TrEMBL record:
Catalytic activity: Hydrolysis of alkylated DNA, releasing 3-methyladenine, 3-methylguanine, 7-methylguanine and 7-methyladenine
PANTHER family: DNA-3-METHYLADENINE GLYCOSYLASE (PTHR43003:SF5)
Protein name: DNA-3-methyladenine glycosylase II
GO biological process, one term: base-excision repair, AP site formation
Entry keywords, A to Z: DNA damage, DNA repair
Domain HhH-GPD, residue spans: 56-213
Domain of life: Bacteria
């Protein structure tokens, strides 16, 4: 997910306890976690903006996504400090949205996302009381959001502690390199490794991402 530099960062309060738990129980985490010091998962921005950014960023480079996002946001309130809200997005015409460099498909996805928020089909105020799968089910009902995007949202926006995104190529590669000496890993093998990290599978996943890329993971 594309970071938003104008919003403050929030970090999970369970991180230190999770690290202690994983270091005690997992030989790889015992070596991996200390390598990254005080680095933590962090989130920023509101739910609608985060999901809109994830849609715009699909299948294009981070640099291109930043450029398109900047042009898109500028359409909402030209000359002012733009606020990305569902009504503001729905107020734009399709042709106007296309001028930001969006494909017709992404325009459709963004309008469907905005409509879900306006209609109350996205129960953001209830998420704290919903389990992960219930939130995933709600999000994948929106066009352009699949399970992987929903799981990234659970990790990077809601900071849920026990998400295991088995469709993520980085996670699979990290498990392969750190647990199987680089040998190919099946989904079942990855799940078995990940299940041992519970109830902090998110944290272990994040450290495996870091083992591949020393820069903080920010989706």
């Amino acid at each position: 997910m594309i970071p938003s530099p104008s919003t403050s960062l929030v970090m999970p309060d369970y991180w230190d306890e999770a690290c202690k738990h994983l270091v005690r129980r997992d030989r790889v985490m015992k070596k991996l976690i200390p390598r990254f010091g005080e680095a933590r998962l962090q989130t920023r921005g509101d739910a609608f903006t985060t999901l809109a950014r994830s849609i715009i960023g699909q299948q294009i480079s981070v640099k291109s996504a930043q450029s398109v996002w900047g042009r898109f946001v500028a359409l909402l309130q030209p000359g002012a400090d733009p606020v990305v809200t569902p009504p503001a997005v729905l107020a734009l015409t399709i042709d106007t949205m296309r001028t930001a460099g969006l494909s017709l498909r992404k325009v459709d996805y963004l309008r469907d996302l905005a409509q879900h928020f306006v209609d109350g089909a996205v129960h953001e105020t209830s998420w704290a009381d919903m389990d992960d799968e219930a939130i995933i089910d709600e999000l994948v009902a929106i066009r352009g959001i699949g399970r992987w995007t929903a799981e990234m949202f659970l990790i990077f926006h809601l900071m849920r502690p026990n998400v295991l995104p088995l469709d993520d190529v980085g996670l699979i590669k990290g498990i392969s390199l750190n647990y199987f000496s680089g040998e190919p890993v099946s989904r079942a093998e990855a799940r078995e490794v990940g299940d041992a990290w519970a109830p902090y599978r998110t944290v272990a996943t994040w450290y495996l991402w870091r083992s591949l890329d020393p820069l903080p993971a920010d989706r």
